[in-house]
Design a protein that fits this description.
two-stranded parallel sheet, metal ion binding, mainly alpha, 156 residues
Amino acid sequence: MFSHNKRLQYTVRVEECNPGLANLMLEQFGGPQGEMSAESRPPADVREGAYLIERPFPPGKLPGDPRFTRTYFDLSQGEAVPAPGPWNDPARFDVVSRLEDAIAVDGGSGMPSVGLTAEEEELVTAMALRTASDPQADPPAGAELGLGELERNDEL
């Protein structure tokens, strides 16, 4: 049975503009070099690049938070027993199995919060207006353009 809980494991607190954090989030979740993209790459690509790693933490990357580096969060809920292995060995890790104990582990409520200055809030609002989509727009799709029925400049 699947249960979706919208509370976050780590509380998100946006209190300032932080391009470094934005870059890290892009690397982890989006973009061609993102973590999600890396999951879909063939393992051979990863092995070929492994020799390039000189240190465990290259410049700009921090080691894990010591409060959590030796913690295994067993978030699989239900009757199925997780397969034992070195990744969840209680002798090597502090295993957290209760879902309630795995939410907001760094303090807080687990709900995101935003604390921007008035100037930053004004900039964010201006950007949201500038980049907003037009729900009434119906631009030609690439497939329609490929049919040759529309001239490229007709609809654009």
